Amino acid sequence: MSDLGEFDIIARYFTRAPRRAVLGVGDDCALLAPLPAGQQLAVSCDMLVEGRHFLSTVAPERLGHKTLAVNLSDLAACGAEPIAFTLALAMPRVDESFLEGFARGMFALADEQRIELVGGDTTAGPLNICITVFGAVPAGQALLRSGARADDDVWVSGTLGDARLALEVFRGSVSLTAEAFEAVRTRMELPAPRVALGLALRGIASSAIDVSDGLVGDLGHVMARSGVGATIDADALPRSAALASLPRAVQLECTLAGGDDYELLFTAPAARRRAVSAAAGRAGVAATRIGHIEAAAGLRLVDGNGAPLRQRFAGFDHFRAEP
Amino acid sequence: MSDLGEFDIIARYFTRAPRRAVLGVGDDCALLAPLPAGQQLAVSCDMLVEGRHFLSTVAPERLGHKTLAVNLSDLAACGAEPIAFTLALAMPRVDESFLEGFARGMFALADEQRIELVGGDTTAGPLNICITVFGAVPAGQALLRSGARADDDVWVSGTLGDARLALEVFRGSVSLTAEAFEAVRTRMELPAPRVALGLALRGIASSAIDVSDGLVGDLGHVMARSGVGATIDADALPRSAALASLPRAVQLECTLAGGDDYELLFTAPAARRRAVSAAAGRAGVAATRIGHIEAAAGLRLVDGNGAPLRQRFAGFDHFRAEP
């Protein structure tokens, strides 16, 4: 506990001298300099609620990282270069140990991505964290959900399913060795936003989205906005060694419906396969081809032999899922 | 209750065709067109929590208005022209009657101010609403908290104290006629952001802030950032007929420490009095001169005869106040 007030908290934990912004934290508004000519402003906003988006057991430093990371992941999915962000934070009471850790984790990622906190709000209330991020993207070059075309390849970065696997270990439905659990827990708590990959895919990918609600759900958004369908080889989905050691049903559930992966799911013409691989190489992350886009609506999940899967999988929906 | 999911809610209540934005609700990011040459982007963010920033009795339509209004008030205090906003909303369950009313109130104010919702987030959780607003202001013309200078006049728009008075009626500590209560309740629930006044004061006011935490607290922010003090005539503070009919102690508490007024508190050189009055006239709102800035630090509250007030007043602090 602490006797710090609202303005002390902002001064102590959330105020740093602005570098790129014209005016940072501490006035009614922040002021951002105009973007370079020909650039558009990309904006995204994510709200994280305790018990929904993170467990109460998460270390504050990791929560600070994750809150910013999931927002940066949206910029990555658009191919936008991050610039700045605002933070609104409601918390039940002033907990300086929480604030110190949260700010440390958040600013470490902000420094790594060379972006800055320019404003926000702090209030008492049930724990809730809302970040709005700003990025820049050359006009006409943003990666959109609506650009997938029939015969495009479908790709995904990194591996899928570890965050969901960690959640299942917390729930007690799966057990792992301590070492494997630590690895998947890190994937859940310290997601790496694929900003460099998003930038490298500009001019190459035809559409992109980040995997936050699970592959099936997020690919569904791309198919709906693009007016297409897809066939996905469930056995081709990239997964960690820890996940690959578990029963196939667990692997399918985690990779197809897991969510919280923050990998990029994107499409590109088959003629650009080498360009995709080169872009992934430059960004230092794997990219795996997992299927293709088709004119016929709907998602067809098949196994490595092309036979349809019989199971059903759904994307995460905050108002339809149990916490 | 409802069986609507997260994406149905966004589609049904929060998706309208973009007018100015390049890309609106429905992708990973919104895309905003570059600002006109020489303009900076003003950004502000406010989070509203049930029981802290609004009572559970408020009509959803009024809550939708107020949530956007308090954010627009920050743009007004900077002299920025509103452009767009994002909305993040956590709510315990899908209540379509709430959503319909909330969206109606929010969009009515958005239409009046000719701005649009470009993105956001919807999730399950304790009721929490976070809006981030974007505006444009010519470089170097933003009204800042830091610009007050010794001998400047101190001004405030409209009247102060009605929102606090309404809260005291809800708390049972003051009673009013039904008609007077309705008037002050409307001030609390439907604040009018002083956007037009903020724009009209560019080039005239030396500093500005909006009155959200109470006059004493908000003037304190201006004094701290400007490195000055002030003398304020408490009897000169503009107040409604309803408030003026109550005991002087209630009037002082409500006007000096009330908060939730969303009037503009600003300073201007004494030589610009006619310009201030003309700007207020153009904006269709009263502006009242309530004191002056002094080089000596600290706030001196005096009565109409210049005698010091003996009472103490403090600005609102979310971590130091009872809900």
Instruction: Report the span from N to C terminus of chain A.
Output: 28 Å
Oligomer: homodimer
DSSP strand (E) fraction of chain A? 15-25%
Instruction: Assign the structural class of chain A, choosing from mainly alpha, mainly beta, alpha/beta, alpha+beta, or little secondary structure.
Output: alpha+beta
Work out the helix count of chain A: 10
Largest interface, C-beta closer than 8 angstroms, per-chain residues: A-B, 76 and 76 residues
Shape of chain A: globular
Note poorly predicted spans of chain A. Answer: none
Biggest pleated sheet of chain A: 6 strands, mixed
Average of pLDDT of chain A: 91
Helix/strand order of chain A, N-terminal first:
HEEHEHEEEHHHEHEHHEHEE
In total, the number of strands of chain A is 11
* Portion of residues within helices of chain A: 25-40%
Strand order of the largest sheet of chain A: 7-9-6-10-8-11
Kindly provide the radius of gyration of chain A, computed on alpha-carbon positions and rounded to a whole number of angstroms.
20 Å
